[in-house]
Design brief:
- By secondary structure, this protein is mostly helical.
- It has one domain.
- The termini are far apart.
- 75% of the residues lie in helices and 0% in strands.
- It is flat and about 45 Å long.
- It has four helices and no strands.
Length: 83
């Protein structure tokens, strides 16, 4: 476990949207190994909602549009899954 001071000093240099984007990208890479489109669609939908619900006072507007795109794409990915 990392001490909270190390995590806090890392997060102070970035916006919350950048950190969420990093977690989203790492999670997507991790889920690609499963090969399940349903789980990938759920992942996209969850992060789309997180990006949409993050307050715009602490976040850039571009992440709002990213969240909107993810919420639109997620059901498409989920519906084409054949598992």
């Amino acid at each position: 476990m990392l001490p909270l001071q190390v995590i806090d000093s890392f997060l102070l240099n970035y916006e919350i949207g950048q950190v969420l984007l990093l977690v989203f990208a790492l999670g997507t890479i991790g889920l690609l190994g499963l090969g399940s489109k349903k789980v990938l669609g759920l992942h996209f939908g969850a992060f789309g909602l997180i990006f949409l619900l993050t307050p715009q006072a602490v976040n850039s507007r571009i992440y709002l549009f990213l969240g909107l795109a993810l919420v639109i794409i997620a059901p498409m990915i989920f519906s084409i899954a054949d598992e």
